[in-house]
Design brief:
By secondary structure, the protein is of the alpha+beta class. It has 4 helices and 11 strands; from the N terminus they run H-E-E-H-E-E-E-E-E-H-E-E-E-E-H.
């Protein structure tokens, strides 16, 4: 049975008690939890801190800022045979007198120039295709320079090699490759000419295979 308030008694005291309880509950909710730090109020004139931005990954290591060289000590890929001979004759690092050191290779339009070196270089080989240098190989002297020193020098200048194996380290920019091969050889290679030679070799091999099939089919 619900009791009705007595006539003449005011309900104001009960309402006041309810408001007091609600005020205390709201005040308690605003208090920090035990052990929780209370944030300091912002200084006058200070702006609200910006939201933390997500971490940005560091850029990957690149192959160095400098472009790959096209040659060594003035001998550059793309030079003619006469230009390479002129550079070698003027360089005290090579004993080159010309003439007999030039060899015709079995493949058409190819020549090989060999030069004896002094001090740091033992021998050098320069291969030409259609009268242009596309491969230069330097066999270094292990008594005056070591593999680690050459690798360190190339890495500091051109970054980490794109290809690394126990046999060789290769730096490439798509048009030129520089490789350090064991035991102690540095090679400069024109990749555009190399790809052209590969395609020519594949075409020649395909023609030879077809001719062989025609020959065998004639029996």
């Amino acid at each position: 049975m619900k009791l009705l308030p007595e006539p003449g008694r005011s309900t104001a005291p009960a309402a006041a008690r309810v408001r007091t309880v609600l005020s205390l509950a709201l005040a308690a909710a605003a208090l920090p939890v035990l052990g929780q730090a209370v944030p300091a109020p912002p200084a006058p004139g200070a702006t609200a801190p910006a939201a933390a931005s997500p971490a940005v990954p560091a850029p990957a290591d690149t192959a160095g800022s400098a472009g790959l060289p096209r040659g060594f000590r003035g001998v550059e890929l793309g030079m003619s045979l006469a230009e390479v001979e002129t550079v070698l004759k003027a360089d005290e690092l090579f004993l080159y007198r010309g003439g007999p050191d030039v060899t015709l290779l079995p493949r058409p339009n190819e020549k090989l120039l060999e030069a004896q070196g002094l001090s740091f270089v033992k021998r050098a080989f320069f291969q030409f295709h259609e009268e242009k240098l596309f491969s230069a190989v330097y066999v270094l002297n292990p008594e005056t320079v070591d593999h680690y020193s050459v690798f360190t020098s190339l890495s500091e200048r051109y970054g980490k090699p794109g290809s690394l194996s126990p046999r060789e380290s290769v730096w490439s920019d798509g048009s030129v490759s520089v490789s350090l091969e064991r035991p102690l050889t540095v090679k400069y290679l024109d990749l555009t000419v190399l790809e052209k030679l590969k395609q020519s070799s594949q075409a020649r091999q395909s023609w030879e295979d077809l001719s062989r099939q025609d020959f065998l089919g004639s029996f």
